[in-house]
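SECTION: protein entry
WANTED: fold as tokens:
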Amino acid sequence: MFDRTALAALSAVLDTGSFDAAAQKLHMSQSAISQRIKKLEDDVGAILVRRTRPATATEAGRKLQAHAETINLLERDVAQAMGRAPKALDRPLRIAVTADSLASWVLPALPSEAQLFYDLVIDDQDHSAALLMRGEVAAAITSRARALTGCDVIALGPLCYAAFAAPEFVATYFPEGVTAEALRTAPALTFNRKDALQLNWASKVAGRKVSVLPTHFLPSTHGITEAARVGLGWAVNPLPLVQPLFDTGDLIRLRPDIALDTPLYWQVPRQNKQALAKLTKSLVSYTRRLA
């Protein structure tokens, strides 16, 4: 059993990035914060916090922070089950979401509860599972269908993607249609270097694997849509996000016969399953209405 005040001190330091800010958050002296974390490190037998700017967690620190979050969630769940008003969590609930799901459907699917705050960590759907495995988040939306160790996995359904560009861009780069040859020179818009959506779509067009495209990098789903609207490039984004712009004619859907469906899954550690049941139910319910 770890000392609760020490766990709270650890979470505060890692959340705020400094011992001084953690002291202000917990209304304690900086030396008291340092003493609690030093004792915790002595009890664990490992360094938990890298004394950098900002302060960051070691692997052992991440695991202990995840443990503290699980305890808080369980206690909150028990309080609600007993009809008591739940206290605020020591830290916001950290969940991994994809940028595309955040831009297209996640926000209205999140239940709004008093004393519950969210810390949404954005990563690509193919990589968000790694955050969960490292203990950096309490649950994750991911493209991984196989349950991670110690987790339950729930299918959320597919997120449909479409390729698009502005009418002027289409006239300039695709005057004879979207072909593999045209895609060699038409600038694409890519979220980051993990983002393979444009490459995957281009591979479907070409009928073979495409490994390189001329591209701009723009780490914003909404930003990519706007960049395409002003003619900077072509892109692939969630259909629910760009359909209104197809309807107005601001964007043209490229090759409607070629779509990408990315199945999404909700991975939640079993120790958090009951505490996050309401969130899980809300996510599943919302995505099924979208299907």
User: Anything to note?
Assistant: The longest strand covers residues 151-165.
